Amino acid sequence: MPFIIGRKLEMSQHFKEDGTLVPVTIVEADPNVVTALKTVETDGYSAVQLGTGVKRALNAPEAGHLKDLPALGTLREFRVGSTELKRGDAVTVEAFTPGTKIDVTGISKGKGFQGVMKRHHFSGGPATHGQKDNMRMPGSIASQRQGPVSKGQRMAGHMGARRVTVKNLEVVAVDAGKNTIAIKGAVPGAYGTLLIVVSREGKSVWQK
Predict the structure, then answer these.
(1) Domain count, the chain
(2) Cα(18)–Cα(37) distance, integer angstroms
(3) Nearest-angstrom CA–CA distance, 11 and 25
(4) 12 touches 160 (CB < 8 A)
(5) Same domain (yes/no): 12, 72
(6) Mind listing the pLDDT tens digit for each residue in 67-103?
(7) Within a domain: residue 90?
(8) In the Cβ-directed half-sphere of 151, how many Cα atoms lie within 13 Å?
(9) How many helices (H) and strands (E) does the chain have?
């Protein structure tokens, strides 16, 4: 099952072989390096750690972990049932083929502090019948008898900048020369956002 670390480049459009025009997101994924392998015998679970990007200076633990490997700035771990990869191997976009169904995980755009109408789609209060300056207010949040505010109560607060996974997207095209993947539709985050791309085929994989 293919998986890779990439970055969101831009939105674009792509013509399929049948002439259909589809919106796509271009994700750049330079060759990832396998930096570590976890096994059930030694770690209690099976996983592959990939690295990408460049870091100018590594601290002592990072330098020891990446011994004999490039100075990688981003590391992510993927839990897999079994793999033929070895430490030092490269994972490229060529592992994906057009038509492959994938899951894409990233950090959504941050919207700052927002009220309940924008954050939770509240309808707001009436603008008549004695109301004043309350049209966008949340209204009652329960009675005093209930005690503290219930956990998970929908209120104003920080919006966005959360880890989001969009499932069952489709790979439209792969450009090995530019290290890019064209994914049908939109993916989380702003341009430059770090993305985790995992194929849905075969045994399930989850990333942390």
Answers:
(1) 2
(2) 42
(3) 4
(4) no
(5) yes
(6) 999 999 999 999 988 788 999 999 999 999 999 999 9
(7) yes
(8) 0
(9) 3, 13
Residue in the block written with tokens 């700035």: 73
In the structure encoding, which two tokens stand for residue 167, read together?
């499932």
- Phi/psi for 206 (5° steps) reads -130, 150
Contacts of 34 (CB under 8 A, 6+ apart): 48, 49, 50, 51, 85, 86, 87, 88, 89, 90, 91
Judge if 23 and 62 occupy the same domain: yes
The per-residue pLDDT for range 95-137, each reduced to its tens digit, is 999 999 999 999 999 999 999 999 999 998 888 888 888 899 9
CB 22 within 8 Å of CB 184: yes
Nearest 5 degrees, angle CA 115-CA 118-CA 120? 90
What does the CA dihedral 119, 110, 184, 174 come to, rounded to 10 degrees?
Answer: -170
